[in-house]
Specification:
Elements: H1 20-31, E1 36-39, H2 46-54, H3 57-60, E2 64-69, H4 76-91, H5 96-104, E3 114-116, E4 121-123, H6 134-147, E5 152-157, H7 170-178, E6 184-190, H8 193-201, E7 212-215, H9 221-234, E8 238-239, H10 241-250, H11 255-268, E9 274-275, H12 277-300, H13 304-316, E10 319-320, H14 325-330, H15 336-348, E11 352-357, E12 360-365, H16 368-377
Parallel strand pairs: 1-6, 1-7, 2-5, 5-6, 8-9
Antiparallel strand pairs: 3-4, 10-12, 11-12
Helix pairs in contact: 1-2, 4-6, 9-10, 10-12, 11-12, 12-16, 13-15
Amino acid sequence: MENPFYITGIVPEPYFCDREKETAWMVRTLENRAHILLTSPRRMGKTQLIRHVFEQPAIRDKYYTFYTDIYPTTSLHEFVLFLSKEIYSVLVPKGKAALGKFLAGLHSLAGCLGYDPVKGTPTFDIKLGDIHSPELTLEEIFNYLETADKPCIFAIDEFQQIAYYPEKNVEATLRSHIQKMNNCLFIYAGSNRHILENMFNSAAKPFYNSAEEIYLDSIAKDVYTRFIEEQFEKAGRRIASEAASVAYDLFEGHTYYVHNVLHNAFAYLNDGSTIEKSDIEKTLSDILEEKGHSFASVMNQLNYQQKETIIAIAKEGKAVGVTSIAFVKKHALKSPSSVQYAISTLLDKQLLTYHNEGRAKVYRLADRFMEKWICQTY
């Protein structure tokens, strides 16, 4: 029996939950030829949403669509490698003409390209050390996107990583290429809001006001719980309405964590039995026990002020006014300034995330399983 709650890979259409408004907005924005900035807490489903948008007929039939996650990259060299490998992998099934045009334009890497005599196609076995001039190769990649035989959409996930590259003026370099392009649109996606907001909302930054912004929040509870019950029913199994509600409430609809608990609960379920509230709670307990060692390792790498601060925010769930005297006293923290410094570091380590509610910033842990574990442990 196929588990309907996917936690890895691309979610097939029948198992994709809602996001109808977000999908329609993104398709309309791309059709209106505007770039998109898509932000959300990590694991809220932005990658799956991008893939889902790419499968809409208005996009799939008209555009070449590319997606790459640059979270592992630490330099412009790696950025260029990730972009070029993604273009190659998408164009391989399109045929020799489409692929050949791309590879023919990579003059800076021409000596590193191979050829498969069996398939009769060029091979892309470029390694990081083969990229000697990333700025030149980047220009060649953008030249291809601009002259491709179909319009292109390139989604770059965890786009905030470019802010950490050691090379100077990466943002300005990218923006100078992109603003001259007519044949390619970009979806900039990411989970580190404080960096992305600075990139796109600061008048001093190259990407200022260059993309339409959308924030991906939780799916409405009634929609999500109905989807949960329907998926169990389609699989010939059953989940009590209370259990589906508890699964949602534990993580306030945060997609990955709800799906993860349900994925494991579904796997434990015997045919003919029903998932109850107690089964959801037991499943979560098992997950936290399994992940506890890695969470403890993360905590051990923090200094005392950072550890105190992350514990306080975890126990709040949603922490507002974190530098106020009231918050500091409630959690026996050292001082507002020490909390502010700790939060800055925790944001950089991507252990915290935040969103705005009016003028207030609301902080919480980026990993909701870790949040639950801290509350249990401390």
